[in-house]
Amino acid sequence: MSIKRKLLFGLAVSLQLCALAFAAHQALAQEAPDAVMARPPADQPYNDKTLYGFGAGDALAAAQVTENAAITHNSISINGKTIRYTATAGHLTAADPKTGKPEASIFYVAYTADKQNAGKRPVTFFYNGGPGSSSVWLHLGSFSPKRIVTGDPATTQPLPFPFVDNKQSLIDTTDMVFIDAVGTGFSEAISPNTNQTFWGVDSDAAVFRDFITRYLNVNHRLESPKYLYGESYGTPRTDVLANLLEMGGTKLTGVVLQSAILNYNSNADFNGGSYGPYFPGYAAVGAYFNLVTPPPANLTTFAKQMRTFVAGIYEPAVDAFLASNTQPSPNLLNQLFFNSGYPVALWKTDFNLDETTFRYNLIPGSLLGRYDGRVVAVIGSPLAADGDPSSTLITQPFTDRMNDYLPHGLKYTAVSTYNIENGDTIQDWVWTHDGLYLPDTIPDLAAAIYQNPKLKVLSENGYHDLATPFYNTELDLGRLGPISGLQITHYRGGHMIYLFDPSRLLMKGDLVRYYDSRS
After folding, report:
1. For residue 46, what are the CA distances in angstroms to 39, 88, 246, 407?
2. CA–CA dist 362, 383 (Å, integer)
3. Where are the beta strands (DSSP E) in 359-445?
4. Is 162 in contact with 398 (CB distance < 8 Å)?
5. Mind listing the pLDDT tens digit for each residue in 184-220?
6. How far apart are CA 329 and CA 333, in angstroms?
7. Which of 104, 239, 321, 478 has its CA 20 to 30 A from that of 209?
8. Are the C-beta atoms of residues 257 and 458 closer than 8 Å to each other?
C-alpha cells in the first residue's frame, strides 16, 4: 500500500472512530443527562474581613457593609432520592421601608434545592429566640441538610458529637433560610443605629421583616409560598412579624410555632401567679422516671388526663391558695404525688410548685433539665453547674461545631468569632408591646389571621419541656377560637424537640403533611 493510500485509510478510520464516540456520547446524554452533567458548579468561598461588634452600642459604618456570601454546592440522599442543593452563607442589608436607609447587616445561611420552580417552591425562614440567641440550634439540630447527633436525652454520648447528613432534612420539601438576630451570629446594626436599637419586641420583629423583604426581592422569591418557623422567643417574634408582613403586603402561607411562649402575662415564671399549667409537664417528667402511680400506658392519654385534673381540681385549689391561703386537702396532695411522683411533704411546702424547685427535688441529689426534664445530672457535677444540664449538655458542642462548619463546610471564613448567644441582649431588652409591660402576642397572630384567613398555624410542643410548658401554650392558643388553620402537635422531648431522634422523625412527617396541605 502506498504512503498516500495509508494516510487516506488512517484518516477514514479516525473519522469513523470519532463518529462512533460522538454517537455514544449523544446516546449517553439522552439516556442519562445527569451522568454527563454530574459535575456541580464551582464553590465560591468568602473571606469576611469585617470585625463585628455585639455590644449594645456597637454598629457598622456604612462603608463596612457588603452583601457578599460564600456559596457551596452539595447533595444529599433522602428516601432514596438524591437532592442537589446550594448553601449560601453571608449578609443582606435590612433597610427601613419608609426611608430606604440601611438598618442592619443580617447574617444568614440559606439552603435552596437546585433546578426548582421558584414560584412554587416553598421558602421557610427559621430563627431561635432568647432574646439573644443565634439560629444555631435550629440550624444544626433540626431540619437543615446537616445535623449534630446529641444522643438526647442521654448524657453519655462521647464528644465531639457526630455531624451527619440529616435524613430528616426538609430540603426535599422547602428551601430554608436560617437568620441570626442583631447582635448574634455575625449580625450587626448599621450606624446611626446601634445593636440595642433592635433589642425590643417591636424593633426586633421590624428588622426581621425588613431582612425577609430584602431576601425575597434579591432572590426573586416573591411568588414563593412563604413560611415562618420560630422557636421559643422566636414564637412571639413570629406572631408580631407575621402581622407586620401581612400589613406590608407580604402574604404568608403558614407559621410554625415550636416550644412557644406567646403571652408572657399568662406564664407564672413572669407574672408570679399559678403554676397550674406547668403540672402536666411535671407529670410527663415523673412518668419518664417511672415515678407515677399507676404507670401510664400511653403518654398522650396520660397528658389528656392531667389537663383535666389541672382544669377541674388543681388549678382551682391553687387559685384559692393564692387568694386566701386555703390549704390543700390530704386527698389532693396524694393525687399530686401519684400523678407526678413528687413527694407529699414537698407538695405541702410548695403547693404552687415552680419548675426550678421541681427540678431540684424530684430525684434526690440530682438536677433535671429545664429545657428537657428528662436530662439528669448529679448536683455538684459540671453538667449541673449552670442550673440546666439539658442546656449545658449541648452548648459547647454546638459552639465548636458551628465554628468548624462555617469555614470548612460552608466555606465562609471570618476574622470575628460567630456569636452563638449574646447575654447582654436579654438584659437590655425592651419587653413592652401594645401597651403592656410584658408582651401578649396572641392579638398579633389573630390580626395576621384576620388579614389572611388562609394562614396556617402549626404549634409543636414537647411533653418534657419545662421552659415553655405545652398546656400553657394550648391555653394561650385557645383564645384564637375555632380557626380551621390551627394544628397542635405533641412529641416526647423537651424544648428542642428535634434533638430526640424518634420525635424528629415524627416532626418531619407532620411538617411534610403541613406543607402539602397548603391551598
Report:
1. 21, 10, 35, 9
2. 17
3. 366-368, 376-378, 412-414
4. no
5. 999 999 999 999 999 999 999 999 999 999 999 999 9
6. 6
7. 478
8. yes
| Gap between the Cα atoms of 34 and 50, Å rounded | 39
Q: What is the DSSP letter of 62?
A: G
Q: CB under 8 Å to 217, separation ≥6 — which residues?
A: none
Q: Which residues pair with 133 in a beta bridge?
A: 421
C-alpha cell at 263: 403571652
Identity (one letter) of the amino acid at 138? L
Q: Which residues of 127-166 are buried (b: 16+ CB within 10 A; e: fewer)?
A: bbbbbbbbbbbbbbbbbbbbbbebebbebeeeeebebeeb
Q: What would the pLDDT profile of 230-273 be if each residue is shown by its tens digit?
A: 999 999 999 999 999 999 999 999 999 999 999 999 999 998 89
Closest CA to 425 of 127, 194, 139: 194
Alpha carbons 217 and 340: distance in angstroms, whole number? 52
Q: What is the pTM of this model?
A: 0.91
* Residues 165, 312: Cα–Cα separation, whole Å: 47
Strand partners, 70: 89
**Buried b or exposed e, range 472-486, using 16+ CB within 10 angstroms:** bbbbbbeebeeeebb
Please tell me what DSSP assigns to residue 434: T
* Cell numbers representing residue 150 in the block: 446529641
